[in-house]
Amino acid sequence: MALLQAAQIEGRVQEIEAGNGRQILEALFADDTGLLLQAEEDNWRRATEVMKQFERILGAKLNVLKSLAIPIGFTDPPSWLVNSGCKIMLSGEVFTYLGCPIGVALTEEQSLQYLLDKLTKVKSRLRLSHWTHRFLTWEGRLVLTKHILHAMPNYVLMIIGLTKDGYKELTKICRGFVLGSNSEGKEKKALVAWDIVCRRKEDGGVGLTSFELQANALKMRFVGKLLADADPDWVRVAKAILQWKMADTASRMLEGWCAAKRSLVLKDFLVPYLGPGRLNKRYESELNGAD
């Protein structure tokens, strides 16, 4: 990345701006590298020259055919990008990157379908597709649901949001596995409502958590990181987006917890996600300015 950063400093490669002048050129994870460039032919050509220089220094070969270009803001990809030989993601296509669905103008239905396909595939493996599934006890299916089916979507739900219907579809898959099936392969009928099953054990349930509550908890975690004095690039980008959407209120909200806890915007955002109970009342009193 030193070669790219040097090209950036010299002005040969133009990066993107994520708000408030924050410039981002690359995103690194293990052996995956993502470049965020201004969509201009000269900019693409100069970035390619830097990559070729990298090849000459290390003797490594960059596989252009395995690379993916995502043109943002284009109805059709520019001709110079088409002629580059790099695979291009078109609008409506879905690609998995670091375990999450990405795409140009990705719809909520596409994100939901990604999760449904993933859970259905795992569910079919857990069923073992023949007689052994019928000998799994209720407790066994419950443990598998808690630690596998319910845990798998957490990572994706940190990034994408779903409607209530989307959460219901995810719940339907888990409910079908917990209830089991008869000798004909048909799902058994529930004897109690699913919301009762999802209650705490002290309240007569089995301790399962609804997907919607899980997603709300992850949103709270995200807000907590924004309010903290963290400095990663993704926090700066998120703050820039919030400031762009909510203007002065967001900038005041993000100055720190002491100043933000009495903000009406923060109150409207936090309280609905805390759920019922003492924790809700405690935070609500703090947000209202009570000691």
UniProtKB/TrEMBL annotation:
It comes from Riccia sorocarpa. This is Reverse transcriptase domain-containing protein. It comes from the Eukaryota.
